[in-house]
Design a protein that fits this description.
The structure holds 2 protein chains of 2 kinds. Chain A is mainly beta. Helices cover 0% and strands 58% of the residues of chain A. In chain B, strands 2, 4, 5, 9, 10 and 11 form a 6-stranded mixed sheet that branches. The chains are: A mainly beta, B mainly beta.
């Protein structure tokens, strides 16, 4: 059983489009995260939710909007996609500080 | 200056070698120190977790934290080709669970 799953795995879209990435975890964790990994492999946190409540909101354009319908799911919606949004987006979940379990990633390419 | 500095390498060693990976940091509030391993096109996976200063050993892996020098290390003994991956250090001050990652070091262990 996959602990943290993301869909889709690959996403190719044109500039200006709106897209969503879904994340689900079956570990029973209370906290979930979205990270962006750029082409140089630098991993940076974007958002974090704890029990459906937003607790971390880094300096991210407001075109990015996370939504947590329940504590097992955290989705990421991106409006008006730009070339610079091309990256790998990782979802993660955790029970305690530092011990985060990552999903397989969604490779977003904006053309 | 980045909060966490990590030499990106690449680092290439022969099988059986001892590998030393390091990170320095500037934020004295960091209390939790982690090492993640990321294989190509996969999500990061937690390797080692340390709270505050000290050493921790797990099989062939040893993590060291020196808070006075703001320096952490990961040692891999008897390195194997299967250890070839990107190694990311990560740190947290706690509370929100926000992780700050280093850039990652690309390691190749050749037979």
């Amino acid at each position: 059983d996959t602990a943290v799953s993301q869909t889709p795995k690959y996403l190719v879209t044109q500039m200006g489009n709106d897209k969503s990435i879904k994340c689900e975890q079956n570990l029973g964790h209370d906290t979930m995260y979205w990270y962006k990994q750029d082409s140089k492999k630098f991993l940076k946190i974007m958002f974090s939710y704890n029990n459906k409540e937003l607790i971390i909101n880094e300096t991210v354009p407001n075109r990015f909007s996370p939504k947590s319908p329940d504590k097992a799911h955290l989705n990421l919606h991106i409006n008006s996609l730009e070339l610079g949004d091309s990256a790998v987006y990782f979802c993660a979940s955790s029970l305690r500080v530092g011990e985060q379990y990552f999903g397989p990633g969604t490779r977003l390419t904006v053309t | 200056q980045k909060e966490v500095e990590q030499d990106p390498g690449p680092l290439s060693v022969p099988e059986g070698a001892i590998v030393s990976l390091n990170c320095t940091y500037s934020n004295s509030a960091f209390q939790y120190f982690m090492w993640y391993r990321q294989y190509s096109r996969k999500g990061p996976e937690l390797l080692m977790y340390t709270y505050s200063s000290g050493n921790k050993e797990d099989g062939r892996f040893t993590a060291q934290v020196d808070k006075s020098s703001k320096y952490i290390s990961l040692f891999i003994r008897d390195s194997q080709p299967s250890d070839s991956a990107t190694y990311l250090c990560a740190m947290s001050a706690g509370v929100s669970g926000k992780l700050t990652f280093g850039q990652g070091t690309i390691l190749t262990v050749h037979p």
